[in-house]
Amino acid sequence: MATIPPGIRLLVSFDRDQWYRALTFILTFLLYTSFHLSRKPISIVKSELHKNCSSVSELATIANSASQRPSLPALHTDMDCSWKPFDKRNYKQLLGAMDYSFLCAYAVGMYLSGIIGERVPIRLYLTVGMLTSGLFTCLFGLGYVYNIHSLGFYIFVQVANGLVQTTGWPSVVTCISNWFGKGRRGLIMGLWNSHTSVGNILGSLIAGYWVSSNWGLSFIVPGLIIAAMGVVCFLFLIEHPNDLKSMYAQNSSPGKSAYYNYEDNVQNRKQLPTKSWNGVGGHTEVYLQYKDNKTQSYDTELLLPKESVCVPVQPVVVVKRESEPSAISFMGALRIPGVIEFSLCLLFAKLVSYTFLFWLPLYITKAAHLDAKKAGDLSTLFDVGGIVGGILAGVISDKLGKRATTCAVMLLLAAPTLYGFSMISEFGLGPTVGMLLVCGGLVNGPYSLITTAVSADLGTHKSLKGNARALSTVTAIIDGTGSVGAAVGPLLAGLLSAGGWDQVFYMLMTADFFALLLLLRLVTKELASTKSPPISAVELKEH
Fold first, then answer.
1. For residues 113 and 473, is the Cβ–Cβ distance under 8 A?
2. Which of 31, 307, 444, 453 is the most exposed place for a label (fewest CB within 10 A)?
3. Can you give the pLDDT at residue 157?
C-alpha cells in the first residue's frame, strides 16, 4: 500500500472549525482589500485631472514647429492638458473638496453604520454596501466616458460612495473577531489588517495602468471588482461559528438514524438497533429494541422488564434558552474605558495616514518630477512599509501586553521621519525608497493596531460582562472618529499646499504630536502595571 502524501496528511490534520476559520480570514481579507482598492484611484488620477499645462503647450509647440504645421488651437491644448473643472488655478482646493466630501460622508455614516450593523445580518448588510459602492465607483469613471465636467456630479458620487463604504469596516471586524479569540490577537489582526495596504497597492497599479490613456477605466475596473466581491460575500460569508452549529442541527434528523444514542453524555456510548413498522393510520413509528444480552443502566433496568420489548421513540429536541443580550447604546460604548482616548488618538493618526493616501502620488509627481504612472508605482512602497509596520505593532503589543505604549513609541519615531520625508526632492531614488518604507511603517503601524486589535479588545471589554453585541458599535465609534481626521487631513493638505508642501508636513507633524499626547494617560497606566503578564499569555489561559 502506497504511503499517504505529506500534503494530504497536512490537510486532514485540520478539523472542520479550523477550515472555516481559515475561510473567514481569507474571505474578509479579500473583501476589505476590494474596499481600499476602490478608494485609491482618485489619488492616482489627480495628476491627470490637472496637468502642467505649460509643459504640454511647449511640447505641442515643438511638435508643430518641427512638422511646419500651424499651431493647434489653445482650446484643444487645454482640453488635452486638464479635465474641466479642474483646469483652474484653484485646482488643489477643488481636488481637496472631492476628498473632503467622500471622507466627511464616511465619517458621519460610520457612526450610524455600527449601530445598524448590530441589528441586521452582517452578510446582507455587507453585500448591499459592496454592490452600491461598486456602482458609485463606476459612475465616477463614467464621467470620463460621457464627457461630464460638472463638479456637482463628482461631489455627489463621492458623498454617496463615502456613505455606502461605511458598511465595510464594522462588519468585517465583527466577523473576524467572532471567529478568533483573544489569544495572539495583535499578530492575527496585524496580518489580517495588511488588506488595507494590499488594497492600496493593487488600486494604485490598476489605476496607474489606465491613468494616462483612459482614466475612466481607473475607476470602472475597481468598481466592478468590489461589486463582484459583494456577490462572493453573499455566497460564502459566515458571520459567527454558531451559525454553523445551527445549520448542522437543522440538517440532523433523529428519525433518519439507524441507531439511537440513549446515553449521549456517557463516555462509552452504546448504540441500540431499532425496528419500525406501520402504526395506526399508516404512520411510521420508530421503536427501540432492548435485548436480554444488553447491559442496561440502573435507571433503565428499573423501567424495563428483562424480556425483549419494543418501546416507541419520540424525537426530543432540547433547546438551551438564554436571554439574548441587547445591543449596546452609543453612550454606553463611550463609557468603556479607553474608547475615548483611542478614538481621539486615531483621529490624528488617521489624518496623517489618509493625507498620504490621497496626496502622496501628486506630491511625488511635483517634488520628484515623475509622471503619474511612475509616481503611483513608487507610492505603493509606502503601503508596503505599512504592512510591515502593522504586523510589527501587533507582535510587539502581544509580547509586551501594552497596546497604548506600542502606539506611542511608533508615533514618537514617526515625527522626525515626516520631517525627513519633506525633503524628498533633495534625495536620490535609493534614499527615497527607504524613506517611503520607514515612514509607511511608522505612520500606519499605530493606525492599524488601533483599528483592529485595540477595537476588538475594547469591544469585548470585561465591563461588558460578555455582551459581544457591542463590538460593531465600538469599532464604528473608534473608526468613525478617526474618519473625521481622515476627512480634515486631505482638505487641509489641499489648502496648505498652495503655500508650499513644507506647510503640509508641518501640519502632519503637529497631528502626530497630538496623537501621542492623547495616549499619555493610558501609557502611564500601562507602565505602572509592569507586573501584569502579557495579554497573550493571560488570554490564552482563558480558552
1. no
2. 307
3. 95
